[in-house]
Amino acid sequence: MKNTSLRFIILVSFLTSLNLVAQEKKILPEFSKAGFWEVENAGRKTYNFNVGWRFKKADIKGAHEKNFDDAKWTIVNTPHGLEYNASEASGSVNYQGPAWYRKHFTVNENLKGKLLKIHFESVMGKSKIWLNGHQIGEHYGGYLPFVVTLNKYLVEGDNVLAVWADNSDDKTYPPGKEQTRLDFAYFGGIYRDVWLVATNQVYITNPNEVNKVAGGGVFTHVDEVSPEKATLSVKVDIQNDSETTAKLKAIFNIVNPEGVSVAKSEQNVTVKKGKSSIVKNIFTIENPSLWTPWSPDLYKVGVLLVNTSNQNIDGVAIKTGLRKIEFKGAEGFFLNNKPYPGKLIGANRHQDHGYVGNAIPNSGQWRDAALLKNAGFDVIRAAHYPADPAFMDACDALGLFYIEATPGWHFFDGKSEVFVNRVYSDVRNMVRRIRNYASVIMWEPVLNETNYSAEFAKSTHDLVHEEYPYQGAFTVCDNRGAGHEYYDVVYGQDYNADFNKDKRCYFTREFGDNVDDFNAQNSPSRVFRGWGETPQLVQAKTYADGDFDKYTTLETMYNMPPQFLGGALWCGFDHQRGYNPDPFYGGVADVFRQTKYSYHMFASQKDISETNKPIIFIANEMTPFSGSDVTVFTNCEEVRLTVYDGQKIIQKMANVPKYVRVLTPHGQPNRREKVGTKAIPHPYVTFKDVFSFRELKSMHRGGKKYEATIVAEGIVDGKVVTSFKRVSGKHPTKIKLSIENRKTPLVADGSDFMVVTASMVDEKGNIKRLNESMIQFEISGEAAIIGDAQIQANPKRLSWGTAPVLIRSTVNAGKIKVKASLLHEGVNTALSGELVFESVPSKDKLIYSEIGVEANTNANASIEETSEEKLKKKVMELEKKIIELKLKEEEKNQLEFDENR
Fold first, then answer.
1. Considering the domain boundaries, does residue 892 fall inside one?
2. At what angle do helices 389-398 and 362-374 cross, to 10 degrees?
3. Strand pairing of 709-716 and 774-781?
4. What is the CATH number of the domain that holds 190?
5. Would you state the pLDDT for residue 864?
6. Which of 205, 287, 376, 563, CA to CA, is 20 to 30 A from 769?
7. pLDDT given for residue 20 in this prediction
């Protein structure tokens, strides 16, 4: 008991030394391009090739020919997903079949003589590529990058790059399973970025192009780390496609998170014509900033090639974190030579989004990662395929561990040599693509929940270690899968497993879901946000410590020994499915990334010592249908609840010091020490019989001046450090618009989009949850609205008081005005709302000859209100105020006869 008290004093002392209301560290989104980060004036140029593709959703004979007439085709920008679908798009309602893209472009003078390649981050399904009528490539699989070279068939003037993309079912490549039996959807198209990469004839290779085992591009790995120094190995593959031998100097520069160079070296290298050479170097970095989820510091490793004339020939950079991961069986997971503090809790993530399918731009990928991080998660498992590179960039920068998975789900054709070899190719390429990322903690090279052979399992395990033959590569598969004995870590949901027999670490790949059967698939975890308060609260409590099933809860995982690492929630976001007409509703946020109560429950599990962020949230909306109990999610020590403007004041311990942190001298959290049992780190607090709508009615009708509020205050060390105020929504008076961008601006690149939310609010801005009016959106300026009435995007019905709309940028930065009005306005209806904001210029170099625009764009309209519009608005506001005064008189009359009601 004395030791526990001492630990608690250390914790409190550390907390009081922090600014508990400090702002979160602002990290501006930055993204890699075509597998690398850019180096200024290095001889390599990377262009955004997304804008201006002619598109047809059909199989068109002759569409690969240069002179094919595509004048009547739609013009789109990538990432593009073939079509827009309604937010409820499960049951294989999406298009499957061939589609064509054609891009007209001209090679600028400054690119002549350069080696030109197109880097496709992903095209769904199988694809073929032609340049000016000549086939230059093909690819099978929808989740990994591939590269084609343009030079042989380039011409002066207009060039045409044609892409045939087919997302039909095809069992010859992974995942292989037909969509009508699949738990996700094959949304099609060129749904990730396209880049034009221009280099000299001597260049640093792309690892996904050159097909070299543990080679190609830039390969870094961390050998050893300590607070005093870290050892970083760097290997670079250089190709010479010129007609002469190249004599070069390779200049390495390691830059720390503050932008200061901390290690440099130069090395001479000779590369014969038509050959490649490898340059290796080992760097010792003094007093390193080590990468952790709570301090995700990244170093930039730059490589510059200079010829004998001192000209820059090529240069690239990668970002990586200095960290060491180890899985030590009974001792658990170690990060940077120390036991990891607590459990690894996270979520699985499917990549689709409302309306656009899988076609999420880079900033959208970042926003997804930021939301999951803010939800309190520290690890994301790929479900069930490699993620977009921009999502990986965000995981590294924000501090999210990542479990990479090869494409696969419930299908294995072991008799097909073609299928098996394509799985092997996917495994190699997924390792090559993200091997430098600090966030990658495990590799899952097997096919999810699939009956494969032990020989296949061993082969995929071996492939990972062939491609990453250094410390830090760990494979993972199900503990019941064939060949699991070959793997470094195992997935397991059997919490009664005999850990003494299996010395490896365990992790639950999917926890939380709890269906009645896999046909009906009803579950207390699957909750549509619009169903409201009670279902959302049931979902949150189910994930926390529900009694439904021992496999569903955080409580069970936190009571396991260190050998059990933690688990990933199924699933982070709601998403569409091919084999079931119901979308998966078990996310902590919906398909538009609107959060549910469970988001706040998970967020409250993070200690203030780790995030410097006290959290408190009231899970009661004070509607006529709200329960009498009030549940509060918090990571504070105590909660004080004040009801009805001080008419009730209740204070409770939040039961939080069930687990406390032991802090190192450097302030780094060490292993969480268990003080109690059967508890999550920060159990939710329930105040019994606090809210009564009857009391609310009596208070309002009785002429009392008390405000209808519930206020929760979070207390640490006897001081209030945060508070949350809930107010009962009253008479709806206006529509309020807000930007849901997670501090990420809208980029004017023709592809970026973000969510703007319309909320029905009362006079004081409180959301009226129980309102289902139809909202009509309008836009002017440098953006357009995604979708229309056909997919129920615009107009959009309010659900749980809100209605999201997707706003797409143009290629011009500037002001944007969004207006939201009731579809059917009347004298007593709510006033419309307006929001004006600006997009920011893209930092990318764009190549296009035409621009894709949304079908309902109004980008040329002025955002300035005319004098007539201003006058009309003022008249409407005055009329409503007059009517409100009359309504108050009517309310007074009704109260006079209150005793008869």
1. yes
2. 40
3. unpaired
4. 2.60.120.260
5. 64
6. 376
7. 33
If asked whether residues 748 and 845 sit together in one domain, one would say yes
Are residues 50 and 158 located together in one domain of the fold? yes
Is 860 found in the same domain as 739? yes
Alpha-carbon gap, residue 762 to 65, rounded angstroms: 59
- Asked whether residue 874 falls in the same domain as residue 857, the answer is no
- Examine the domain organization and report whether 648 and 788 are in the same domain: no
Residue 18 has pLDDT above 60, yes or no: no
Distance from chain centroid for Cα 253? 31
Candidate from 147-151, 368-372, 612-616, 662-666 with smallest mean pLDDT: 662-666
Predicted confidence at residue 295, as pLDDT, reads: 94
Q: Is the pTM of this model over 0.85?
A: yes
**Same domain as 741, residue 665:** no
Q: Which pairing describes strands 344-349 and 379-382: parallel, antiparallel, or unpaired?
A: parallel
Of the listed ranges 131-135, 224-228, 352-356, 670-674, the one predicted with least confidence: 670-674
Position 855 scores a pLDDT of 80
Confirm whether 314 is domain-assigned.
no
Residue 900: pLDDT over 80: no
Same domain, 838 and 896: no
Go through 412-434 and write b for each residue having 16 or more CB atoms within 10 A of its CB, e for each that does not. beeeeeebbebbbbbbbbbbbbb
Question: Whole-angstrom Cα distance, residue 312 to residue 367?
Answer: 36
Calculate mean pLDDT across residues 411-438: 97
- Picking from 480, 506, 486, the residue whose alpha carbon sits closest to that of residue 495 is 506
Closest C-alpha to 148, from 133, 160, 130, 164: 130
What's at 261, amino acid-wise? Answer: S
Is residue 263 situated within a structural domain? Answer: no
Q: How far apart are CA 783 and CA 830, in angstroms?
A: 26
Please identify which residue in the block is written with the tokens 């009498």.
628
Q: Cα(659)–Cα(429) distance, rounded to whole angstroms?
A: 41
DSSP string, 239-284: EE-SSS-EEEEEEEEEE-TTS-EEEEEEEEEEE-TT-EEEEEEEEE
Residue type, 240: N
What does the pLDDT average to over 562-566? Answer: 93
**Location of structure tokens 């891009």:** 103
Q: Are 55 and 196 in the same domain?
A: yes
Distance of CA 626 to the CA centre of its chain: 32
CATH number for the domain that contains residue 787 = 2.60.40.10
Residue 257 in domain? no
CA proximity to 182, closest of 50, 90, 88: 90
**Geometric angle at alpha carbon 373, from 368 and 374, rounded to 5°:** 100
What is d(CA 784, CA 861) in angstroms, rounded to the nearest whole number? 11
For residue range 866-898, list pLDDT tens digits in order: 667 667 666 666 666 665 565 555 455 544 444
Domain tally, the chain: 4
Cα gap 726→740, rounded to integer Å: 21
The answer to whether 844 and 32 are in contact (CB under 8 A) is no
Tokens of 418: 């073609």
Rg (CA), the chain: 29
Q: What's the rounded Cα separation, in Å, for the pair 855 and 786?
A: 8
DSSP 440-478: EEEEE-SPBT----HHHHHHHHHHHHHHS-STT--BEEE
Q: What span, in angstroms and rounded, lies between the C-alpha atoms of 484 and 480?
A: 7
Sequence-separated (6 or more) residues with CB below 8 Å from residue 851? 51, 52, 75, 77, 750, 810, 811
Q: What is the mean pLDDT of the chain?
A: 89
Give the domain extent around 831: 734-864
**Confidence label for 826 from pLDDT (cuts 50, 70 and 90):** confident
Strand partners, 345: 567
Question: Is there a contact between 640 and 712 (Cβ–Cβ < 8 Å)?
Answer: yes
